[in-house]
Recover the amino acids of this structure.
């Protein structure tokens, strides 16, 4: 049997879900403009692609994936859920 603990404070969460909240977050890149002209299609892209590949080779797969899509799931008790809902974009000090 899976036991859940609150990701905020460590409190045991009841198996019946009576004090259990789930927060799911998805972060993904918005699609850019998808319009292109005939010139865009006919132009030579080989240099651009070569640079892109060289750039990708220097970075870790995790870093690249993080830029495209990340999802998170948090299990929270009622108190931590209240605190989360009050400030979901609390991103800490800048
Ligand atoms: Zn909690």
């Amino acid at each position: 049997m899976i036991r859940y603990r609150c990701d905020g404070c460590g409190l045991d969460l009841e198996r019946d879900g009576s004090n259990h909240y789930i927060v799911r977050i998805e972060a993904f890149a918005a699609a850019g403009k998808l319009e292109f002209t005939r010139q865009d299609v006919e132009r030579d892209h080989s240099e651009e692609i070569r640079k892109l590949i060289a750039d990708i080779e220097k970075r870790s797969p995790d870093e690249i994936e993080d830029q495209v899509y990340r999802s998170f799931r948090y299990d929270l008790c009622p108190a931590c859920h209240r605190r989360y809902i009050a400030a979901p974009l609390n991103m800490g000090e800048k």
